[in-house]
Amino acid sequence: MGTIEKLQEDLLLAEETVKQSEIVLFNDEVNTFDHVIETLIAVCEHTPEQAEQCSIIVHHNGKCTVKTGEYDELKPRCSKLLQAGLSAEII
């Protein structure tokens, strides 16, 4: 095995060991589209277009992954979504 192949293999192994989690936003009958969109922009750093698309997906499918990353990075974001009255969890 050459040096380049070994480095690529090591990189792939390192990427696999980082556990990726997701914040999933759930539909509710309480919050308006505008509130959900504004909250996703503020908390998850979505663009207005991303936030609008996520709100539509949540409305039609009942849930949508709104942010992916390491658990420790997602936990405060999920807490802010909950404080804003949205229904979300980290999976």
TrEMBL record:
One of its GO terms (molecular function) is peptidase activity. Keywords: Hydrolase, Protease. InterPro entries: ClpS_core, Ribosomal_bL12_C/ClpS-like. Gene3D superfamilies: 3.30.1390.10. One of its GO terms (biological process) is protein catabolic process. Residues 20-84 form the Adaptor protein ClpS core domain. It comes from the Bacteria. This is ATP-dependent Clp protease adaptor ClpS. It comes from Aggregatimonas sangjinii. The lineage of its organism: Bacteria, Pseudomonadati, Bacteroidota, Flavobacteriia, Flavobacteriales.
